[in-house]
Amino acid sequence: MGSLEFHHGPVENNCDPPMANPLDPEEFRRQGHIIIDFIADYYKNIEKYPVLSQVQPGYLKKRLPESAPYNPEPIETILQDVQDHIVPGITHWQSPSYFGYFPSSGSIAGFLGEMLSTGFNVVGFNWMSSPAATELESIVMDWLGNMLQLPKSFLFSGNGGGVLQGTTCEAIVCTMAAARDQMLSRIGKDNIGRLVVYGSDQTHSALKKASQIVGIHPNNFRAINTTQSTNFALSPELLRSTICSDIEKGLVPLFLCATMGTTATTSVDPLGGLCDVAKDYGIWVHVDAAYAGSVCICPEFRHFIEGVEGANSFSFNAHKWFFTTLDCCCLWVKNPTALIDSLSTNPEFLRNKASDSKQVVDYKDWQIALSRRFRALKLWLVLRSYGVDNLRNFLRSHVKMAEVFERLVRENKWFEVVVPRNFAMVCFRISPSAISKIPGDDDGSAMINEVNYKLLEAINASGDVYMTHAVVGGMCVLRCAIGATLTEENHIHRAWKVVQDHADAILSTYQ
């Protein structure tokens, strides 16, 4: 693809033919083929790019013009600039050597479903605005709920129901708002300052953000400490003692977020025990399974959400580890009326017979925004294109590769696995035993953390592999999160070699 020149000046030419309609079918077909070829070539060559973008802040402003073009430019020119200027600034989340954060796994079905959704470009705020968008979403959410073996009380086929949100942050805001309004209807709106939200020090920051948005007093947010002795899971006993202390102060327990697969270490909170405690005090329990919920479609992992029947809501992100493109957060609630009562608005311009009949779902009342995308289409394509059996096997293959990486770490005496591996992420670090310069009167924790931070920086600067870190129990740990769709076992061995090579170079300065 040859580079063409920018033409940004206001060049007027009254002899130019009129531009084709922006939605001309034949021009769309032509440009669409070009885009598909571009994306296919990107995936074909993705391993040639450094996984972590190597650009510096502000790089793009130096490369692009100061104003939008006055005259139209051909798609060929635009795509050349994508290749030359945008791709260098991308961290390649779909690279087979991407092991950072959590995966954002893609698939052909996910991409094509997104294309269909974007192509139809419907705004499905209520049933009438596009009946298929609403009804497919309800059907797909029951399909997926059954795959997870969620209690029937979470499904439309019971008394509950599911909705596709953008992210877990939105899911927690919506459920917390519902819990807040339910509670305030009993104790009075003037008591909002007494409401308390509970999580652990490993709970995702989305819980704190949601509590801020919903109006919980900053002093009433509880991040209960966890320890390595419980693999950083939230203790039901500590939860109960914290609740009792709050009640003695005249506060009102409101909301608990239990996590199945924490961000730092993929630890799993004991849902059964936590739900039992919450039930004693009338607390809404939300289960955040954003990362690991998907793997519960495999029978051997379903036990991780035992006790979910005691929760009020449950969510996981299909855009993380379920081959469905961002954004697609699956949220189920036992009591949809609680969401609707808290989030609905019914202006006259949206009134219609279907909504008035109360026989249809209007998803605008299950979310923050009015407008909504046809997300169900891409999830439907993923489920149909691969089927339950293949989806299970894809997920199992990632777990198996994580087992390989874990074994490689354990076989090296200079490294240690910090917490037990639950799913497809390994938390590891250079062990204190690898460093001989630790002062005798010091536990060496600062030096060990320094070494591991240096290792992380060296790995990522290489461009060969990308990993991220966490700090748990005062320890800096590296996280190898496996789940990119293109990753194969050879990439695991290659990643471990990168880790070893850089560790050897760093440790040589500490001997």
Total strands: 11
SSE sequence, one letter per element: HHHHEHEHEHEHEEHEHHHEEHEEH
Shape annotation: globular
Radius of gyration: 25 Å
Structural class: alpha/beta
- Largest sheet properties: 7 strands, mixed
Number of helical stretches of at least 4 residues = 14
Note the gap between the termini: 52 Å
Name the average pLDDT.
92
Low-confidence stretches: 1-11
Strand content: 5-15%
Helix % is 25-40%
Spatial strand arrangement across the major sheet: 1-7-6-5-4-2-3
What descriptive keywords fit this protein?
seven-stranded mixed beta sheet, disordered N terminus, four-stranded antiparallel beta sheet, 40% helix, 511 residues, 14 helices, alpha/beta, 11 strands, 12% strand
Provide an overview of this structure.
The structure is a single chain. This protein is of the alpha/beta class and 511 residues long. Helices cover 40% and strands 12% of the residues. The protein has helices spanning 25-44, 75-86, 108-120, 131-147, 168-187, 206-214, 236-248, 271-280, 318-321, 336-343, 353-356, 376-411, 445-462, 489-507; strands at residues 161-165, 195-200, 221-224, 252-259, 284-288, 313-317, 329-333, 415-417, 425-430, 468-472, 475-481.
